[in-house]
Structure formats: structure tokens, C-alpha cells
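chain below, 312 aa
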Amino acid sequence: MSIIGTAVLVVVIFIFLLILAITGIKIIRPYQKGLVERLGKFKHQIEPGLNLIIPFFDRLIKVDMREHVIDVPPQEVITEDNVVVSVDAIIYYEVSDAFKVVYNVKNFENAAIKLAQTNLRNVIGELELDQTLTSRERVNAKLREVLDDATDKWGVRITRVELKKIDPPRDITDAMSQQMKAERTKRAAILEAEGIKQSQILQAEGQKQSQILKAEGQAAAIKRIADADKYKLQIEAEGQALAIKTVFDAIHSGNPTPDLLTVKYLEALGTIANGKSTKIFLPFETSGILSSLGAIGEMFKKDANTKGEEKS
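prediction:
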């Protein structure tokens, strides 16, 4: 064999070995798993890293195990109160079994979209429009539960379902806007009325409290004035009583005679009967005084007779 023929053979062998190396050495990424088919039959599953397969006999299928997103196209759905709304959603899923997702369903994403659209009609068809618009979390949770149960045999786990948009017809939107405006106006009127009511109540309470405090102040002032007057009268009475007692003790300690007492009575009567008084004063011991007055009169008569006899 010539040198040229040998070189060509070497080149061919090198190319063949290179092809064998390229087709037989496979690298699986960390987020992937590999399924090996040999002559059309599933052989085994390989893990991430460097793996060898038999060229021309084995076929490698790589499955991405990361979380995926499916955008469900908008579709028209009829609510329980017969309102047509346009709804679209997003489905988040991750592969839990690489074998099932390859061999149990032909096109998982297309199947998931159809399944989501069907269940959207079922779930929203059980709700009225207001519930649909205000219960997105409820719809999301129910859709995720239904889809997760349905896709379990496909080796897929539905992690999350989100409604992107719910669009009612324009006339319904206008009616809802007017209703919301009316509700806001109603709430504003109620709040204003409540504010006026609370203001009036507070004003009345303030006036009531003010009058109570004013009355309590007046009562306290009257009580203090009365206490002062009482104290004044009490002190004056005690002073008069002390003065009377002092005079009484002084009189009795001097051992006065009935004649002296009679003269003092007459002086007192002269002070009382000063021409301006309209009262009649009768001492308690009237009979004694009268007898004393009689005695004094007799005494004056005796003196007069005695002086007459002396002149004669």
C-alpha cells in the first residue's frame, strides 16, 4: 500500500473515531436529566455530568427540569349570571418525572393549555361576575388544584396559576363604574352625616359638661358663702354669749339689789322706746318690775311729803 493510501486510511479512521466520540460522549447539564433509548426501547435514565452511549444504537433525550411558564391565550367565558368575559392566564409548572413527561403525553404544553382553557370555563362558570373580579385568588387556587391533579400522570407538577386579565364587556364596565361611583357617593354622604352627628353629639356633651361644671362651681361657691355666713354668725353668737356671760357674771358677782336691777331695766326700756320703735317690750319678770316700780313710787312720795313738812 502506498503512502497516500495509508494517509487516507488514517484520516478516515480518525474521522470515524471523532464521529464515535461526538455521538457517544454526552454531557448532561445540572438542570437536565437524560433518557437513553436503545434500538427504540427505553434503556435507562442518566444524571447530570459526562455520560457515554453507544453511537448509532442509543438515542439520548434531554429533559429540562427547571420551572416553565405557559401563556394561556385569551378566551371568552360565560359567568353564572350570563356575562361574557375575556380571560387569560399563566401556568407555572416543573417536571417531576422525566420518563412520564416524555412517554405519557405527546405535547405537554399544548395539552396543558387546552386543559387550562377547559377548566377556566368550568371554574368561572360557577361564579358570578362580581365574584370573578374579586375572587382571583380563589380561582387561581382551584385551577392549580385541578390542573395539578390532571397533570400528575404526565410527570408534571403545577406550581402556580395566575389570571392575567379579566375583561367584561364595555357596557358592563360602564355600569360597574357608575355603580362604584354611586357607592362612593353613598359612602361619602354616610361619612359626612356620621361626622355631623358626632360633631353635634360632642357639642351637646361639651355643653352638658360645661353646665354641670358651672352648676357644681356655683353650688361650691354657695356652700362656701353659706359656710362663711354660718361661721360668722357662730362667732358673733359665741361673742355675744361670752359678753352676756361676762356681764351676767359681773352683775352677780357684785351682788346687785332689786332696786339697782329695776333702774337698769328702766334704762334699757328708755333705750328701746326711743320714739322710733313700734314694738312693745315686756320683760319676763313683769310682776317683779311693777312691784319694784311701786316701791320706788312710794319712796318718791315719802320724800316729797317729808320735804313739804319741813317747809311748813
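The chain has four domains: 3-64, 67-168, 182-254, 256-311. The first strand starts at residue 25 and ends at 28.
thats it, cya
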